[in-house]
Amino acid sequence: MTQPTKPSRRGFIKATGAALAAPYVLTSSALGNSVRPPASDRIVMGGIGIGNMGSGDMGAFLGRGDVQYVAVCDVRTGVRDGAKNRANEHYQNQDCKAYNDFRELLARTDIDAVHVATPDHWHAINVIEACRHGKDVYCQKPETRTLHEGPLMVDAARRYARVVSGGSQRVLEDYRGIVDACWGGSLGTVKSINVNVGPLSQPCYLPAEPVPADIDWELWLGPALWAPYNKARCDGNFSTGGGSWRSYIDYSGGGMTDWGAHHFGGATFAVDVRDQQPTEVIFNQDPEGNYLTYKYASGMTIYHNKPKTENLKVEGTEGQTREPKPVPSYKGEGGIYGDFIHCVKTREKPFRDIEYAVNTIVLSHLGIIAYQLQRSLKWDPVKQEFPGDEEANRLRDRARREPWTL
Amino acid sequence: MNSIMKTQELEQAFEALKTFDWGGDRNVLAPIEQAVVSSAKDAAAWKDLEQKLLAALGGNLNRAGKDFVCRQLILVGSGASAAVLSKWLGSAEDAQLARFALERIPGSEVRQVLIDALSSVTGDQLLGVISSLGARFEPESIPALTRLLSDANEKVAVAAVSALGDIRSPEAAKALGGVKPTSDAVRAAITDARMSCAEGMLAAGKSAEALMIYKSLTGDDQPKHVKLGATRGVLACAGKK
């Protein structure tokens, strides 16, 4: 298969020099204008996983004048063809191509960046492969399916000097009041914050249904254990109560990771531990409901589902104030998407740099394991292991169905 | 609930497991899941559970039943599971289930059955075994993986290269340094694996060894992102960010 090849920015002039010798009409679209840079200066993008959140992400990037959207990938025929048509109607051309297999999209050397919104069990493979192919990546939350995947995604981003952003826009945009109170110093020294989120995902033994003609079922499953098709197993809605893939353990951590990425993300940002991971998770048995206490080496405490405590309730040294700190924010214009595109251009770290995103979702995974084993855990953030705890260490990762690997 | 009732429930669950299939009520198997967690600190109880689960596998379980058992073996599995599950490693249908449990069970028995499988398993199942050895960070598998680096099957060569990159030891780096890439895919995998090894060396304070790898990847013949990443690696070796 012949892949389109993108000239380098510097090589662009040389390449076009020869082309200009031939009769050629430069369109206004190619030349750009006050709000749309010339084609050579746009970030060329593709999308992997275009249903649901992927569709929203695509719309955000498609609406940017500094992005040229050229490729979509989805294992559902109707979804990818619809997305392709959407891009081509937007640009009034036929340049956007559709792919069933993300590896074909990543092989294109003309694509600078991709956004990933596949089901969670695919994220690590998609992101790491994209980095290996020199693409910058915007990845929907929750970024990982297992504890083991996070450091490998960070490694891949750093190894190839890629810009990789996590995908929760709520971290900055939804909890601003709490963030401002914590960073502004009005709560004094912040001691703890509570996160209410759930439930956990479950194994799935839904009955087999005929596989519809418009889905590549083997590729949808990918690295997950083989299982028969069932609409509720792979439906794209946001249910964590049995109506979609977010309910099931092979593809998602359930609400604990799905909304957990937002709430834990907001909590770790508010109490300023985005660059850390906890060292201990205490499993508390309580008549009102079991809950967790995460302890950080810095002294910070995060609770999960603490009884009678509202979501993102902060405990500080009331009556005292502290010097305010400037609150980090997005760069560029256009929210979290604009932040990513700005960083693709400048090579800065995005607001939801993959390392911060991984440090957030670690809380969800540690919590899942603590609830599963119904006991407290020690965690070594450097070695990424449960010290001396063979049982918990077995749950750090899960084998991937051949031929898939990280 | 007293222990007699618990034992009865467990026996009923194992009986239900014999015919459990897709669409079945998972709640009938819940006593097994509960026993796995509640007896975690009781070595004899875990051993007994493992034996019961392996005995069930020896019967004629449906695919969903095998799936359920292998999920439990992740926690209670031991060397005894290695002997049983190793028979599935070449099976197109069951190898993924075997590795689903085996990859997470520590110990020399599992390591050895995976290394042995490198010379007996083929196709995608071989790729899976190679991947599992990498995921387990098994240095003892380096000689066997090294022999696969020049495999005529590109996918096997790439998988072996990647597994050595996962193990990321100086020995793995040495093995990778001697590979002559036979295709672009193998070349890219070698680059990735060598950089992974360099990161491991750097983290272990062996910056001189890491520097040699990074310097070899900064040439103009390298893709832009490789050259950029390797250049940052060179700076990191010099203590600069």
Kindly describe this structure.
The complex is a heterodimer of chains A (406) and B (241). Chain A is 35% helix and 13% strand. Chain A is an alpha/beta fold. In chain A, the strands form two sheets. Chain A has a six-stranded parallel sheet, sandwiched between helices. In chain A, strands 11-7-10-9-8-12 form a six-stranded mixed sheet, with helices on one face. In chain A, strand 2 (67-73), helix 4 and strand 3 (97-99) form a beta-alpha-beta unit. In chain A, helix 12 (255-270) crosses helix 14 (354-373). Chain A starts with 8 loop residues before the first helix and ends in a 13-residue tail after the last helix. Chain B has 241 residues and is mainly α. Helices cover 68% and strands 0% of the residues of chain B. Chain B is built from 14 helices and no strands. Chain B has helices at 3-17, 30-38, 43-58, 63-76, 79-85, 95-102, 108-117, 123-135, 142-147, 154-167, 170-177, 184-203, 207-216, 224-237. In chain B, helix 12 (184-203) packs antiparallel against helix 13 (207-216). The radius of gyration of chain B is 22 Å and the shape is elongated. The mean pLDDT of chain B is 95. Classes of the chains: A alpha/beta (406), B mainly alpha (241). The A-B interface holds A 8, 131-132, 134, 148, 155, 158-162, 202-203, 205-208, 225-228, 372-374, 390-391, 393-395, 397-406 and B 20, 22-24, 26, 37, 40, 64, 67-68, 71, 74-75, 93, 95-97, 99-100, 102-106, 124-125, 127-128, 131-132, 134-135, 155, 159, 162, 166, 188, 192, 195-196, 199, 223-226, 228-229, 232.
